[in-house]
Amino acid sequence: MIRVVIAEDQGMVLGALASLLALEPDIEVIGRAPDGLAALDSVRALAPDVLLSDIEMPGLTGIEVAARLAEEGSPARVLIVTTFGRTGYLRRAIAAGVCGYLLKDSPADKLADAIRQVARGGRVIDSALAATAAFAPPDPLTDRERAVLRLAQDGQSNKEIARALELSPGTVRNYLSEAAAKLGASNRVEASRIAREQGWL
């Protein structure tokens, strides 16, 4: 049996994925996680073969979960299933050690086959997205610029961002300015929008 943990913050989607995979004779859903931190804890506790994860979740994104598992040397293989066909997400996911990347509008049988292939040690990437990513611009942001932009996008002030990331307000301002300059944006709002559209947040 292929043991799977599902991480998805939308309850109906989480239930639907679990029900769908329950129909497969060789796949067992052993855990469900409603956010990134719970996903990390579930993988550590249950040691699944595959973590099936969304990208945008509270706490940690699916990409951040994959990166942490890779740092810890976890044998669990991560398969991203998302609505976001953004090349920036795909590139960051691959860099984080993700083994598969599918869009949620893929056929149901393709998901089960992807889980099997990933569990066997293979890789599965949405073909149309992979072709687009080959010609997309690279992500210009550093991890720190990305973290600052993500909080700025949520409407937090420089002082609030500084407190959250344990930086000085001046350093936060510098990161925001550098990010805006790299993205050709006139302010933090525009910089956040551009970065999100490209999948760089």
Automatic annotation (TrEMBL):
SUPFAM superfamilies: C-terminal effector domain of the bipartite response regulators, CheY-like
Key words, A-Z: DNA-binding, Phosphoprotein
Domain HTH luxR-type: 134-199
UniProt KW Nucleus keyword: no
InterPro entries documented for this protein: CheY-like_superfamily, Sig_transdc_resp-reg_C-effctor, Sig_transdc_resp-reg_receiver, Tscrpt_reg_LuxR_C, WalR-like
Modified residues (4-aspartylphosphate): D54
This protein's name: Response regulator transcription factor
Upper taxonomic lineage: Bacteria, Pseudomonadati, Pseudomonadota, Alphaproteobacteria, Sphingomonadales
